[in-house]
Write a structure and sequence with these properties.
The protein contains four helices and six strands; from the N terminus they run αββββαααββ. It is of the alpha+beta class and 144 residues long. It folds into two domains: 42 residues, no CATH class; 101 residues, Arc Repressor Mutant, subunit A. The strands form three sheets. A two-stranded antiparallel sheet has the order 1-2. The longest helix is centred in the middle third of the chain and has 23 residues.
């Protein structure tokens, strides 16, 4: 990337990340992985799941797993709400997946579609034929 002028110089990015995080008071960690590395940013004193501080290791920072879980929970909640808003009109599974940006069919069905159907938040337009090619999904009556 240096040779095609996409970056200014070698090896300055990680140092700049550390300097900026120090300035902002954000804990940062670099982890070596099999196929590269990961940069982990810790947010100080965030509240997660039980409403208590995420300070699981006594240093004022939530653990990486807790921060990641909270982020994933927020994304799941956001996507679920987006599905329910989108399905005010009948929609196909494919349309719903595209709407929330999920490509994997089995993941979408397991994480989003099945729980929403089980809870009655979504209903099938052809309930007696769940695998119908004409199947669409729409908001259930309990969603206002």
């Amino acid at each position: 990337m240096y040779y095609v002028k996409d970056i200014e110089s070698f090896g300055t990015g990680l140092k700049r990340i550390i300097d900026e995080c120090d300035t902002a008071g954000v804990k940062v960690e670099f982890r070596m992985m099999k196929l590269g590395f990961a940069v982990v940013f810790y947010r100080p004193d965030i509240s997660v799941h039980d409403g208590k501080s995420g300070d699981s290791n006594g240093d004022g920072y939530a653990s990486q797993d807790t921060s990641q879980d909270a982020s994933q929970d927020t994304s799941l909640e956001h996507r679920t709400a987006s599905i329910l808003e989108y399905c005010i009109m009948p929609r196909t599974r494919e349309d719903i997946q595209k709407h929330i940006g999920i490509a994997n069919r089995s993941y979408f069905s397991r994480v989003f579609l099945k729980p929403l159907l089980d809870s009655g938040q979504l209903i099938m337009t052809v309930p007696d034929k769940p695998n119908s090619r004409n199947q669409k999904y729409m908001r259930g009556q309990n969603n206002g």
